[in-house]
Amino acid sequence: MNKIKQYFAVVTLLLLIQQVAFAQEPELAPDRKAAIDSLALEKVRDLSKYISIIGDKETPFSEANRVIERAMELFADGAQMGVSSLNSSEVKYYGIRTYFRRLMALNYDKVKISWFNIQYISDLERQPDGRYVGVITIYQRFEGISEDGMKYQDTTKKDITVFVERKQTQIGGRLIGFWDVLLGDIRVSETTQ
After folding, report:
1. Which of 4, 78, 81, 142 could cysteine-pair with 99, CB 3.0–4.6 Å?
2. Taken in order 97, 101, 104, 107, is the CA torsion positive or negative?
3. Nearest 5°: phi and psi at 23?
4. Domains observed in the chain
């Protein structure tokens, strides 16, 4: 019985320490939040460019692989990309690297992918672990043309989870804190013609 009381005392103490540490985490000042919002939107725009390059059949294989490595730096570990089609009601989710590889291997002679209407739909909200999470929505226009002239096109609305977390780096022997933005899962909301 005494060990059970000790266990609960330790758990209670740890929860108390976590709450105190959480309370000491810096809040986002309005100007800092605006800068982070801008950085998150810029990372989404970068991803849009990377996807366009990776999917373009005229991009050399070595260049597409280089761009994939750059694009991977934008994502949190374990992030997934939703893929949909007008031909199926099912949405499939792939790990980001797998998605990029599949994008390179699409069976079209010409592929054009563009993103538009990029905007926040969910403001950054602080989580118990000190990170902030928000959602950016985009519309993706996909067009694939095969050698025989067959054309497939759709427009997909996607929601991108955005993580903002406090990190540290060492510069000149000093620890410097900064906010970093990583992209998470990209979920399909709807696909239309």
Report:
1. 81
2. negative
3. -65, -25
4. 29-192 (3.10.450.50)
